Amino acid sequence: MKLSNIAIVLMLFLVVSCDSNAVFDKYQSVSTSWNKEDVINFKINAPDSLNPYNLFVNVRNTNDYKFSNLYLIVQMKFPHGKTITDTLQYEMTEKNGAWLGQGLSSVKDNKLWYKEGVVFKENGTYDVTIQHAMRNNGDVNGVVNLEGITDVGFRIEKTK
User: Fold this and answer.
1) What single-letter DSSP state applies at residue 143?
2) For the chain, what percentages of helix, strand and coil (3-state, to nearest 5) are there?
3) Where are the domains of the chain?
4) Are the C-beta atoms of 128 and 154 separated by less than 8 Å?
5) For residues 24 and 43, is the Cβ–Cβ distance under 8 A?
6) Which CATH number fits domain 21-158: 1.25.40, 3.30.310, 2.60.40, 2.60.120?
7) Is 144:11 a contact under the CB 8 Å cutoff?
8) Second label for 153, Cα 20 to 30 Å away, from 27, 28, 32, 51?
9) d(Cα 138, Cα 143) in Å, to the nearest integer?
């Protein structure tokens, strides 16, 4: 009887964890620290040229992350050569210092808005690059090795 209960729980978990909105969802691991020169790269084939999609940057952090925000430079290169570069700031904690990400352990998953309602009008491969642009207060030079980020991802979802 116990074995069948475990099987039912596992089947429910698999059904609930399926995500029908995701069109693209990949992560890349960062070594023990994310060097400012390390660029995370994702190659994406355009899902279609008619429907709008929402784009997200996904970040996993641990308690070793020492900042309450995160600055990223995200660049999207279109198949026909056009490039869009955005410098983005995300809040990582509440005012009291509690992490905003999801997760029961010390690793928190953060799903961060990048762009809303994007239509991939050009057929072909889009190239998305992500790098951090963190600085300590009063520092001219950026943080070379950013600790506490374990994975960086990119996600494309169907709009609802």
Assistant:
1) P
2) 10, 50, 40
3) 21-158
4) yes
5) no
6) 2.60.120
7) no
8) 51
9) 12
| Token pair listed for 106 | 């010390």
For 94-106, the pLDDT digits (tens) are 999 999 999 988 8
> Which residue type does 36 have?
K
Amino acid identity, position 85 = T
Task: Report the predicted TM-score, pTM, of the whole model to 2 decimal places.
Answer: 0.84
| Residues β-bridged to residue 87 | 73
For residues 135 and 155, what is the distance between their CA atoms, to the nearest angstrom? 26
pLDDT band at 46 (very low <50, low <70, confident <90, very high): very high
Type of residue numbered 134: M
Model pLDDT for residues 113-132, shown as the tens digit of each residue: 999 999 999 999 999 999 99
Integer Cα distance of 109 and 60 in angstroms: 5
152, 27 in Cβ contact below 8 A? yes
User: Is residue 133 exposed (0-12), middle (13-18) or buried (19+ Cβ within 10 Å)?
Assistant: middle
